[in-house]
Each structure stands twice: as structure tokens, then as C-alpha cells.
């Protein structure tokens, strides 16, 4: 193919910042070196010796004939690129590969608008559990295109890059008509990033549109001023969009996508079954749905033991078992530790790997290691509200109610779209501190069935009412006693 330097450089950065390559420094240096040398027209100079010196940091006396390092790393690089394009990069129209027997990279168009539909029909079943596909499209509705278009394309691209740190969804970027034609054929939703003129500068309007019905299922506007948003504002915008569209518990894209597949009345594809069962458990927390999700995960992992998404859901089942006490797992502590260790081996650069490792440390009362794992998870992905909320529960498990409840409250404050159960730990936190009226207000917001029924809610409300009355009576007795004390001292 004809070299498109900006497109190849952009694809290289997508690869290097992906979960597949983020923690693999040597392979990243290898790939960066051979791609940049190729773009510079120095293909013939890409040799084992040059790679060893300039990419792998070996001394000038390195002997490639005696040391197989470059050949071993090349084989690993090919495998890692295959994994990347089977998961995060599976929708990318441009692909970078390393042909067998060569150290010169190849650049190919994976799919074109003309044959997108044909390729979909013959696409092999993925070995990774997948959720909905979303294509992010920038659009301009302002008069000044010179400054407006670079702003909205950069913002959309950075959001797509941010979502590479999330799981359970496939997100693509489409800047032009050609990209859109290829991506729309493979996505379930379009997420439009529209730039408008606002009262005090630019306004960003985001809308999530389902392809099958062409209905707008979510929309929100953000004032961003006259320039590219500063990091705090940009993170707040990205966190809100991600929470409402792709978050694990209440992301509308996941909900609509799952209901669409179930309503179709057709067999659910194997690579969708884990996510569909997870949605059913989230819609209705029950022992039956919990057991079904566990069986689906175990069947999937028996067939594909390296399925990271299914392993994350399985680790989350351990967390649910610990909280809800379904008695589905024997020796939960050992089981959780084993799953967390598997995740750390499969995806050491994934935030959820560190999150569930923290949960395993919590059960072992290794609080220092638990805190370090939570910090690592937060550093990898601070935009995931589900991750922040589980981190809050783990802090509470360590006895730090102030930090834990604040993390959960932060997730509630981001958006009105969040699970009802978030109010349970907040209610308990206020109750512990004697803020009974506030605790009652939180309790009234809980609408979960099965383990939080009307009787349970009423008993808890009665207890808080009694506590609030008792506190008020004590305070009423304290006031005259304080006055009398002051009179005696006088």
C-alpha cells in the first residue's frame, strides 16, 4: 500500500498505548524502531544487529548469529500484534504487522468500505468476550472551521484513546466518510461529538445513537469555552460520557445492546454470552442469575482460558459472592486469590487486574499491599466509576469509611445514571456517624429487590428514626444542663 505517514504513526501510537503493549517495554521499543526506520525509507538498514543496538539496548559487540534475542523478540512481537488486532484493534482499518522471515514491518488496509459487509459475514468467532461496538464521530457546526475542526477531532480521538483503558466495549474512531463507512458496518452505536457555538465559547453536544432503530438513547451538552479543555474539565467530561454510555453497571450502550440481542429471539453468539449473562445479573440481582453467570463464565474460560474479559467478570463474581453471600463458592479466599493472580498474569496493565488483586489482599488482611494495588488501578484508569466504587467498598472493608464513602459519593455525583445500591454504603456511613436524617434520605433512594425488601427497609428506617429521636432528646437535655452549669459557675 502507499505509505500514509500520519495514519501509520497514529496507528503505531494506538498500538503502543494499548493494553496489549503498555507494559511490554522491549516489544514496544522493537516495534517503534522498525516502523520509524521504515517510514524514513531505511528498510534495508533494519537488520538484527541494528535492532539489537538501537531498539533493545545491546552493546556494539552483540553477535546476532550467537544470540537469538532478536529472533525471539520478533516472534513475540508477531504474537502480540495478532492479539492486539484480535481484541482492541480488531476494527482498525490500518494494520501494522511483521511478516515471518522479515524484520521490515508491513502496512495493510484491513477492510474497505466496499467489502466491509462481506468481511463481516466471514469474520471468525473471536476468542475474547465482547460487548457492543461504538464508533465515535466528530462533527462541526460552527462557522470557524480552521480552529473548530482540529479541536473536535482531537477531543474525539482522545476520548477513544481513553476508552482503550476500559473493558467490555469496542470503540472506534471515524474522522472521514471512508472511515465511517467501514466502522458503521461493524458497530452497534454511533457516539457523535458535535461542536457548536455557545454563549461563552464552544459547546460540545454528545449523542449516542443506536444503529438498528436510529434512536438517540442518550445525549448531553458540555460548555468547554474558546479553547481545548484543560485536563480537569476534560476528565470530568470524559468520565460523564463513559459512565452514561459504557460503564459496566449502568452504561446505556450495554443495556440497549443486550436487550436487543435478547429480544431478537436468536441464539446468543458464544463471544457475547458472558456479557449478556452479566447484564441479566445486573438487571435483577438474584441467586439464580448469579449461578447462571458463573456457569457461563466457567464454560467460556474452559474453552478460552486467556479470555481477559470473562476473567474480569469471574473476578467480579467473587466480589459479589463476598458481599451478597450466595454460598456459590467454597473457600472464597483461595478462589479469589487464584482468579486475581490469573488476571495479573494475563493483563498486568489492566486496572481491573489490580482492583481484584486489592480485593484478594483485603481478604488476607494485607492492607499495605491492598492500598498499593488500589493506587495502581486508579493510576491506570481514573475515569471508570465502577472501578472507583469497588475501590470505595475495599477502603470500607479496611475500616476507612471516610475515604470509601467519599469515592462512592463521587461516583453518585458524576451523573444521575448509577445503580441504586450505591446508596447502601452511603446510608451505613451516615448512620455510623449519627447522621440519622441523612441516612434515612439515602435509604429511601434504595429500590433493590430480594435483599432489600420493604420489611428490611422499614426496619432500618425505624432504627434510624429511633436513633435520630434519641439524639434529639439527649441534645434537649444537654441544653438546660449547660445553662445550669454556667449559672453555678457564675
Overall mean pLDDT? 84
How do the strands line up in the largest sheet? 4-3-5-6-7
**Total helix count?**
20
Helix content bin? 55-70%
User: What class, by secondary structure content?
Assistant: alpha/beta
Largest sheet: 5 strands, mixed
Oligomer: single chain
Strand content: 5-15%
Rg: 26 Å
Distance between the termini: 96 Å
Low-confidence sequence ranges: 111-124, 450-457, 466-490
Count the beta strands.
7
Shape: globular
Order of helices and strands: HHHHEEHEHEHEEEHHHHHHHHHHHHH
Give structural notes:
A hairpin with a 5-residue loop joins strand 6 and strand 7. The C terminus is likely disordered. By secondary structure, the chain is α/β, with parallel strands linked by helices. It is globular and about 75 Å long. It is built from 20 helices and seven strands.
Helices and strands in order, then pairings?
Layout: H1 5-16, H2 25-39, H3 48-54, H4 69-86, E1 94-97, E2 106-109, H5 116-121, E3 133-141, H6 145-162, E4 170-173, H7 177-184, E5 189-198, E6 201-210, E7 216-225, H8 231-245, H9 252-263, H10 270-283, H11 287-303, H12 308-324, H13 332-346, H14 351-363, H15 367-380, H16 385-397, H17 401-414, H18 423-432, H19 436-444, H20 454-489
Parallel strand pairs: 3-4, 3-5
Antiparallel strand pairs: 1-2, 5-6, 6-7
Helix pairs in contact: 1-2, 2-4, 10-11, 11-12, 12-13, 12-14, 13-14, 14-15, 14-16, 15-16, 16-17, 18-19, 19-20
Sum up the structure in keywords:
20 helices, 490 residues, disordered C terminus, alpha/beta, single chain, 5-stranded mixed sheet
Amino acid at each position: 500500500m502507499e505509505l500514509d505517514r500520519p495514519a501509520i504513526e497514529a496507528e503505531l501510537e494506538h498500538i503502543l498505548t494499548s493494553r496489549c503493549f503498555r507494559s511490554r517495554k522491549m516489544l514496544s521499543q522493537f516495534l517503534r524502531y522498525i516502523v520509524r526506520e521504515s517510514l524514513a525509507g531505511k528498510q534495508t538498514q533494519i537488520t538484527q544487529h541494528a535492532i539489537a543496538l538501537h531498539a533493545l539496548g545491546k552493546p556494539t559487540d552483540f553477535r546476532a548469529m550467537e544470540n537469538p534475542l532478536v529472533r525471539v523478540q520478533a516472534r513475540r512481537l508477531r504474537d502480540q500484534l495478532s492479539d492486539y488486532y484480535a481484541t482492541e484493534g480488531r476494527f482498525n482499518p490500518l494494520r501494522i504487522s511483521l511478516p515471518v522471515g522479515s524484520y521490515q514491518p508491513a502496512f495493510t488496509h484491513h477492510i474497505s468500505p466496499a467489502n466491509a459487509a462481506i468481511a463481516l459475514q466471514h469474520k471468525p468467532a473471536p476468542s475474547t468476550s465482547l460487548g457492543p461496538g461504538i464508533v465515535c464521530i466528530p462533527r462541526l457546526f460552527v462557522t470557524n472551521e480552521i480552529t473548530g475542526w482540529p479541536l473536535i477531532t482531537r477531543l474525539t480521538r482522545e476520548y477513544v484513546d481513553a476508552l482503550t483503558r476500559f473493558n467490555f466495549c469496542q470503540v472506534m474512531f471515524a474522522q472521514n466518510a471512508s472511515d465511517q463507512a467501514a466502522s458503521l458496518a461493524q458497530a452497534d452505536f454511533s457516539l457523535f461529538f458535535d461542536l457548536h457555538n455557545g454563549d461563552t465559547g464552544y459547546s460540545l453536544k454528545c449523542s449516542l445513537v443506536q444503529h438498528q432503530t436510529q434512536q438517540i438513547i442518550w445525549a448531553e451538552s458540555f460548555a468547554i469555552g474558546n479553547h481545548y479543555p484543560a485536563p480537569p474539565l476534560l476528565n470530568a467530561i470524559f468520565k460523564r460520557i463513559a459512565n452514561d454510555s459504557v460503564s459496566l453497571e449502568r452504561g446505556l450502550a450495554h443495556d440497549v445492546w443486550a436487550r436487543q440481542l435478547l429480544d431478537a429471539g436468536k441464539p446468543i453468539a458464544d463471544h457475547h454470552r458472558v456479557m449478556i449473562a452479566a447484564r441479566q445479573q445486573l438487571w435483577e440481582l438474584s441467586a439464580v442469575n448469579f449461578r447462571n453467570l458463573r456457569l457461563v463464565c466457567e464454560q467460556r474460560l474452559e474453552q478460552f482460558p486467556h479470555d481477559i474479559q470473562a476473567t474480569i467478570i469471574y473476578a467480579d463474581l467473587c466480589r459479589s459472592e463476598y458481599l451478597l453471600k450466595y454460598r456459590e463458592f467454597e473457600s472464597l479466599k483461595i478462589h479469589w486469590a487464584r482468579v486475581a493472580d490469573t488476571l495479573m498474569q494475563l493483563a498486568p496493565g489492566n486496572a481491573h487486574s489490580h482492583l481484584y488483586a486489592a480485593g484478594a489482599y483485603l481478604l488476607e488482611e494485607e492492607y499495605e499491599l491492598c492500598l498499593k494495588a488500589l493506587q495502581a488501578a486508579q493510576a491506570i484508569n481514573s475515569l471508570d466509576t465502577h472501578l472507583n466504587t469497588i475501590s470505595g467498598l475495599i477502603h470500607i472493608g479496611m475500616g476507612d469509611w471516610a475515604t470509601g464513602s467519599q469515592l462512592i459519593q463521587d461516583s453518585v455525583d458524576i451523573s444521575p445514571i448509577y445503580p441504586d445500591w450505591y446508596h447502601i454504603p452511603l446510608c451505613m456511613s451516615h448512620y455510623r456517624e449519627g447522621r440519622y436524617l441523612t441516612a434515612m434520605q439515602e435509604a429511601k433512594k434504595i429500590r433493590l429487590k430480594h435483599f432489600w425488601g420493604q420489611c428490611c427497609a422499614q426496619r432500618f428506617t425505624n432504627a434510624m428514626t429511633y436513633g435520630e429521636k434519641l439524639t434529639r432528646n439527649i441534645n434537649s437535655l444537654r441544653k438546660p444542663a449547660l445553662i445550669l452549669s454556667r449559672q453555678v459557675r457564675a
